[in-house]
Design a protein that fits this description.
CATH class of the largest domain in chain B: Alpha Beta
Radius of gyration of chain A: 22 Å
Largest sheet of chain A: 2 strands, parallel
CATH topology of one domain in chain A: ABC transporter involved in vitamin B12 uptake, BtuC
Structural class of chain B: alpha/beta
Low-confidence stretches of chain A: none
Oligomer: heterodimer
Number of strands of chain B: 22
Number of helices of chain B: 18
Strand content of chain B: 25-35%
Distance between the termini of chain B: 34 Å
Order of helices and strands of chain A: EHHHHHHHEHEHEHHHHHHH
Strand content of chain A: under 5%
Chain lengths: ~400, ~550
């Protein structure tokens, strides 16, 4: 009794997920129509580079938000980790990897500190990280002695600014980039096929075969087109590789691991999770440690991209990361949200910033538009929930 | 007398449950009208329909006030017509003063639309006098006892110029003195011409105060009786409330009882925030393989506290006592320990403590035993789906697929999901706290069948319930719990509702009836039963 769902059926059922995707496509189409340069290879590369650290932060933030918490300190932690790294590498002439390792250790310590107060003392994450926001910003100023440090140069600089190009040659179009994208597309198709077979075996609803093929072909076309654009520009950005690895790993962690399941259970109903044997304190502790780790990664990427460390770095990053999660369909009360959604949410913000910059929209209007998008996204989410409640 | 209220053929449905079917209620002007019924019979639902909590359009039927049809869209609409409901859970804000609470949402305005506090406090003092409460209107409500808070609720209703006052179990949480005072107040209000509807389980109270009584059972009106009629005895009300044929409400089972699986000895638990308060006092009980043991107790007796303190110390502090499982003493510090030792606890409040309502059936079932589905921390999603589907089939969970969100299922099906979750942990002892609360008769039968299957598979089941017929119908042995102490145990063959009620209301210093507390439960003397029924007539009787 395998049910086959038609197109409209799927759209209505997955409005929460697909709605945001449709919005993303519409925004991209809008800017592409308004500005011919928007979809140029150089600009697409820029979008990825410009917003990569927000996406990295959003990955950690989605776990925090799903668990029903919030982290306001990530901007300050980005600054602190970048500053520690800069002091070691630029001021003291240590090798690049010492800076990277030190930043990650600092990030983990920060996460453990905040996790301790949230999980074991029982202070809400909002308060702990509000304190952390001030605390780590202040420490950044101390570490940097109130002055900016630059430049990193060398390998450290390449982390966020380097490209994989010309490894397999090519004629103006980088073969290596295309091969990597090709592998990704094939991997995606195989994963989708296996999941479809699994669902059929367990008598679940699947989309009809033509629709399934259409979906794969459409995704493959978009991805390969994007890959081609990158390949004909500067090649594959290092940062995109890092981002892809993080997204895949954290999608698996959230969807397939016991830890990830427990995070959703805690956010969905804390008491029920506790009475089902979930170690709530442990979960709360580790999601903050994880956030500290990812904030450090974002700190490394950001300082590398800026080729230095500034006392005021990362200001307001927490709000962009939180907004990305909520635009991407996370629930403000916890229990709902996906890494993929947060990434689309982050990309919507990235695309809008970049598109408006290209069009020369003043900074002030950009802020207004971003604010409205966040508001409308959450309003849509609430409306959608009411509709779902009315349907039952 | 003329009719103030008429409710005609009221029907109200929730997803999967018919809460009210064709209910009729007629209340005369100036009377005190009681509504009786078991838990879940639909009394509170009916009152919520009347007061506009469930707005017009969400129910079927007609409401006539003073002979004129009314369609309340909200509580404000009903209050504007002088219909005021006081809910079972009091709706007072503890940090606000008496006066602030009385006029909350109905503030006394002076010039310039600002609140005139002098006038408000003065008005409040006048209302407090009317309800016979001598308190300063500026005292925060949280500092007053429940009895006084109840009076403040009534003062609040009076401030709204109430004509029809609805009280949902007003004396359930009150001691005898406060109850008496409240009933006296109701008589006084009646003399002032205010009509009251009172929902109560306390039959002697109803006999004392009500002019007429309507009995509701399983969402239907059974009968309305005039209390002045000499045939309107408590027995008649009880018959109307219980009504159903006990024989066919519970599935048959032939007990096959083995060795003691779990025994709890000298279990003492203190209140989590008031450490000097003893919530469970030296309780000892045991349960055998293949046996269903009941724990009967009134609200506040410590039933849930007892279960949760055993289940990974999720309630209480300074817990002492021994837990012996299969002859060996075990230590349970966390829920994970309890699950590992083969103990499962299904909570009485499945929505708040039992289920993740925004998650699907499958993941709710797997949550407590996710490790069984995982290798090195990674969940086998296909296996999970298979397991969930097996439970869906074997427990007959009515859901489109196991990927459906649990919050959309009916109460009975949600309860089956909870049971599936705990069955999948493969427990030896299942503690079921109010397993059939808020679910309809058909689903109840299914839950009983599942319990029977569990014990047939050699598991030990402990059922905590306030529904005595249920305990008598499914248990092999029943312990009674009163004021945190185990006051007796009876084999089901010797237990009656009256005997259990007697033990459930046994106060700390009261004389223990001979034989009733003997560990083997060999209650013999007939005088116990005689005494029980004598007490039944005199003392407060709660049927639920």
């Amino acid at each position: 009794m395998t049910a086959i769902a038609g197109f409209s059926d799927l759209v209505t059922r997955n409005l929460r997920q697909s709605g945001i995707f449709v919005a993303f496509v519409a925004i991209v189409a809008l800017f592409a129509a308004l500005n011919p340069n928007f979809l140029s290879p150089g600009n697409l590369t820029n979008i990825v580079l410009q917003y990569s650290y927000i996406l990295i932060l959003a990955i950690g933030m989605i776990l925090i938000i799903v668990a029903g918490q919030i982290d306001l300190s990530v901007g300050s932690v980005v600054a602190l980790t970048g500053a520690v790294s800069a002091v070691l590498v630029i001021k003291n002439g240590m090798p690049w990897y010492v800076g990277v390792l030190a930043a990650i250790v600092v990030g983990l310590l920060v996460g453990a500190w905040q996790g301790f107060w949230v999980a074991f003392v029982g202070i809400p994450g909002f308060i702990v990280t509000l304190a952390g926001m001030l605390l780590f910003r202040g420490l950044t100023y101390r570490v940097l002695d109130n002055v900016s440090l630059s430049p990193f140069g060398g390998t450290y600089y390449d982390i966020a600014n380097g490209f994989q190009n010309g490894l397999l040659g090519g004629y103006g179009v980088d073969t290596f980039t295309l091969v990597i994208f090709g592998i990704a597309v094939v991997g995606y198709a195989v994963a989708q096929w296996r999941s479809r077979k699994g669902r059929i075996a367990y008598q679940q609803v699947v989309e009809s075969m033509p629709l399934f093929v259409l979906k794969i072909v459409a995704v493959a076309a978009v991805v390969m087109w994007f890959g081609y654009q990158l390949a004909s520009s500067r090649g594959l950005p290092n940062i995109l590789i890092l981002l892809a690895i993080l997204i895949i790993v954290y999608t698996l962690v959230t969807q397939k691991s016991v830890f990830g399941r427990h995070v959703y259970a805690v956010g969905g109903n804390l008491h029920a999770a506790e009475l089902s044997g979930v170690k709530v304190k442990k979960i709360n502790f580790w999601i903050f440690v994880n956030m500290g780790f990812l904030a450090a990664v974002a700190g490394i990427v950001y300082s590398s991209r800026m080729n230095g460390a500034q006392p005021g770095a990362g200001n307001m990053f927490e709000l962009d990361a939180i907004a990305a999660c909520f635009i991407g369909g996370a629930s403000t009360t916890g229990g709902v949200g996906r890494v993929g959604g947060a990434m689309i949410g982050g990309l919507i913000m990235a695309v809008m910033s970049n598109g408006m910059q290209l069009m020369g929209v003043p900074q002030s209007i950009q802020q207004v538009v971003k604010g409205l998008v966040l508001l409308l996204a959450v309003a849509f989410d609430i409306w959608n929930k009411r509709r779902a409640a009315a349907l039952r | 007398m003329s009719t103030i209220l008429e409710m005609r053929s009221i029907t109200k449905e929730f997803p999967g449950v018919k809460a009210l079917q064709d209910v009729t209620l007629t209340v005369e002007k100036g009377e005190i009208h009681a509504i009786c019924g078991e838990n879940g019979a639909g009394k509170s639902t009916l009152m919520k329909v009347l007061s506009g909590v469930y707005p017009h359009g969400t129910y079927g039927g007609q409401i006539l006030l003073d002979g004129e049809e009314v369609r309340f869209g909200s509580i404000n609409d009903s209050e504007a017509r002088g219909v005021v409901i006081i809910h079972q859970e009091l709706a007072l804000v503890p940090y606000l003063s008496v006066a602030e609470n009385i006029f909350l949402g109905n503030e006394v305005r002076g010039a310039g639309r600002l609140i005139d506090w002098n006038k408000a406090n003065h008005e409040a003092a006048r209302l407090l006098e009317r309800v016979g409460l001598r308190e300063n209107p500026t005292t925060p409500v949280g500092q007053l006892g429940v009895g006084k808070q109840q009076l403040i609720e009534i003062a609040k209703a009076l401030s709204k110029e109430v004509r029809l006052l609805i009280l949902d179990e007003p004396t359930a949480a009150l001691n005898d003195n406060d109850s008496e005072h409240l009933l006296e107040l109701l008589r006084q209000l009646k003399a002032e011409g205010i009509t009251s509807i009172i929902i109560s389980h306390k039959l002697n109270e109803i006999a004392e105060i009500a002019d007429s009584t309507t009995i509701i059972r399983d969402g239907r009106t059974i009968e309305s009786i005039d209390m002045k009629d000499p045939s309107s005895t408590q027995d008649r009300i009880i018959r109307g409330m219980v009504g159903r044929d006990l024989e066919h409400r519970y599935p048959e089972r032939t007990p096959d009882i083995g060795d003691v699986v779990l025994s709890v000895e000298h279990w003492t638990v203190h209140h989590p925030t008031q450490p000097e308060r003893v919530v469970i006092d030296d309780a000892s009980f045991d349960v055998r393989a293949g046996e269903v043991v009941g724990i009967a107790g009134l609200m506040g007796a410590g039933r849930t506290e007892l279960a949760m303190s055993i289940f990974g110390r999720t309630y209480g502090r300074n817990i002492s006592g021994r837990i012996v499982k299969d002859g060996k003493e075990i230590t349970i510090r966390t829920v994970a320990d309890a699950i590992r030792h083969g103990i499962a606890y299904a909570t009485e409040d499945r929505k708040r403590y039992g289920l993740n309502l925004i998650e699907d059936v499958r993941r709710n079932i797997s949550l407590a035993a996710l490790d069984k589905l995982a290798r090195r921390g990674w969940v086998n999603a296909n296996e999970e789906l298979k397991v969930a589907d097996e439970y869906r089939a074997s427990l007959n969970i009515k859901t489109p697929t196991v990927m459906s969100v649990v919050g959309k299922l009916s109460g009975g099906n949600q309860q089956k999901v909870v049971l599936s979750k705990w069955l999948y942990t493969d427990p030896d002892v299942l503690i079921l706290d109010e397993p059939t609360r808020g679910i309809d008769v058909g689903a109840k039968y299914e839950i009983y069948t599942i319990i029977n299957r569990m014990v047939a598979a050699g598991k030990a089941v402990i059922v905590i319930s306030s529904e005595l017929p249920e305990l008598l119908g499914i248990c092999d042995r029943v312990y009674t719990l009163a004021f945190g102490r185990i006051t007796g145990q009876l084999p089901v063959a010797e237990a009656t509702q009256e005997r259990l009620m007697e033990l459930m209301t046994l106060e700390r210093d009261a004389a223990v009836p001979a034989g009733a507390t003997a560990p083997t439960g060999d209650v013999g003397p007939d005088d116990v039963a005689a005494e029980s029924s004598a007490r039944l007539r005199n003392t407060t009787k709660e049927l639920s």
